[in-house]
Design goal:
The structure holds two protein chains of two kinds. By secondary structure, chain A is mainly α. Chain A contains 20 helices and two strands. Chain B has one domain: Helix Hairpins (Orthogonal Bundle). The longest helix of chain B is centred in the C-terminal third of the chain and has 31 residues. Classes of the chains: A mainly alpha, B mainly alpha.
Chain lengths: ~500, ~130
Amino acid sequence: MLTSDPWLILLVVVPLLAAPVCVLVRNATAAWVIALAVSWSIFAIAIKLLIQVLEQGEVFYRIGGWDAPWGIEYKLDPLGAFVVVIIATIGAVVIPYAKKSVENEIQKERIYLFYTMMLLCISGLLGITVTGDAFNLFVFLEISSLSSYVLISMGQDRRALTAAYRYLIMGTIGATFYIIGVGLMYQMTGSLNIADLSTIMPAVADTRTVLAAMAFLTVGISLKLALFPLHMWLPNAYTFAPSAVTAFLAATATKVSLYVLLRIFFTVFGEVDLFATFPLQPVLIGMALAGMFLASLSAIWQENLKRMMAYSSVAQIGYMVLGVALATEAGLAGGIIHLFNHALVKGTAFLAIGAIIYSTGAVTLRDLRGIGKSMPLLMAAFIVAGLGLIGVPLTAGFVSKWQLVTATLEADMWPLAALILLSSLLAVIYVWRIFEVAYLRDSHLPPVKVIKKLPMSMLIPTWILALASLYFGTHATLTMDIAHTAARQLMGGM
Amino acid sequence: MIDIPDLIGLLNYWVVIVLMMSGFYVVIAQGNLIKKIVGLNIFQVSVFVFYISMGKIEGGSAPILDEAVKIYSNPLPHVLILTAIVVGVATTALALALVVRINAAYGTIEEDEIQAIEHEEEDVAC
């Protein structure tokens, strides 16, 4: 059990080293080839590690051979492995897609920097997931955040710059809150190792210092997570970032923040009766519900497709947090499975939007009349994603909403179940608006013109994610099993 | 009851809180993008002071394995803060670079003026 597994560190080191190589070659195509090779090998390693974790239990790596808690330890449990696979999958799908999309949206001489930042971002996100050290997590959080600010600022519109700036301010406040929280915990426990913290924590959990730490950690991570009402940075950042970046960040960055929240709540404070010690549950449920409704309502009024999907993301984060806030095994499983399914669904949606922008140059609803006829294959994928957002049976979204509703019923909170269903109706409205424009509106007028033919390298990745969301909507056993295993472990009953 | 020696003993932490809150206030209240970054820096520095104070023990020396050294300060928080300082520098550099680009694109670094320009653009687009 205590053997070090070098594959674990490779997940982080390979993209981290490949990033400066991209800077050195200074060539767009070469940088793309490097990024492609790295993202696919990461994907292979992630799958290998997931299988290994599910079959043999946790995987460790001790940096420099120092034993934990003195050295930094990397550790992968089922939840971590699941999140690593999500990041790796999205990375492996987005990089091939990015080639054409980026050539269209970013100046040629800056493209190699785009791949550099992409690799750094992947490395940071994977680092957050595999590290077993609370401070090391902060460092990776900043690596991924700094690179995502740069990626967002590469958007064509000048508003991308202000969006990136706002995200930088909010993100830095969030990350600083996180280290204040870690500092307060360190003061009480003298440890930074997450596993070690969880054994010491029960002795000090009811002190005011730990209460303050909990408050700082929760608010800091919620900022990164874009939990309503701390989501103000997200809509503009997603709207003005290059399409490939939006797809990548929407499917991974907020998900990883949710993972950090789960780690803090259920691993660091795993031995503590979390919601009895801290007045968290009503706050989290309240914010989750507010997000589900208000963000969905905002989504309905949006003309810009990207912004509509961004608000929809804020709403979907509400569902995940709701599952977490139930703090039951079923609720956590619901949150975790929604994390996976939403990554697929929102990834598909943003990839499809990126393809629409590439082909027609338009992104607002009124410019996209009859797009369903001009680009039938692509819009079909988009509609699959839309159905997934609503949670229609046979799509991945259904599986997770079903699990969440079951969880609320099990926890005797049936009003929540009703509210989940009710807020899904709001998703019906905004998805319907897109459907109406794409297929029904003014069908006697000629549909929107396709200026540039959509390359296969963009259509295929979109469909891979769309098919994956259909597959996991109909064959949910595999993902549900992993989510349940992860949830059971978080709740402490292995 | 307020214990005066305790109050003085916790001086560092008072400084931390005052710095933290004033930095945070500047970030929120200032409309000038550069001043916001200054506020953000003050906010981060307060955390550095917090970590460094936490490791210090009165009369403690450096942690050296030696007969003469009986009490020593914990060096770990100091090392952590070295990392955090580097991260802070990187963040500041990136933020300033963004402000330069924003200034080139909008011709101003006042938040309200930028927002006015953005609103105008959106009105034209609609």
